């Protein structure tokens, strides 16, 4: 049974009859007399607000401390490196790479601690 319905018939079947809008009473338009308003003075500038304290970045950091030497039994120096990561392994690798740039050859890991 194929019945051809128009769009209006489908709307009526789905949503029911459309409510009729309430009639708006016609009002006579009375011209509003132009009133010259006094110019409003500019508001005074507020007192200077306190500057907000600058907060530190919320990035995770680990401090790696290494004992490093340039010779096998040479003088031991303490090398400290701050890594922007949560992985202690990655932080250790970055610290060793930085120590290599400074011509250190032998490394001993002392600690990896969060800052």
Features:
3 strands; 21% strand; 115 residues; alpha+beta; 3-stranded antiparallel β-sheet; elongated
Topology, element by element:
Elements: H1 7-15, E1 62-69, E2 77-83, H2 88-101, E3 106-114
Antiparallel strand pairs: 1-2, 1-3
Describe, in plain words, how this protein is organized in 3D.
This protein has 115 residues and is of the alpha+beta class. The chain contains 2 helices and 3 strands; from the N terminus they run αββαβ. The chain is elongated and about 105 Å long. 7% of the residues are buried. The model has no long low-confidence stretch (mean pLDDT 81).
Note poorly predicted spans: none
Rg over CA atoms:
39 Å
Span from first to last CA? 77 Å
- Percent of residues in beta strands? 15-25%
Q: N-to-C SSE series?
A: HEEHE
Tally the helices: what do you get?
A: 2
According to DSSP, the number of beta strands is 3
Strand order of the largest sheet: 2-1-3
What percent of residues adopt helix (DSSP H or I)?
Answer: 10-25%
What integer is the average pLDDT?
A: 81
Q: What spatial form do the alpha-carbon principal axes imply?
A: elongated
Instruction: Name the structural class.
Output: alpha+beta
Biggest beta sheet attributes: 3 strands, antiparallel
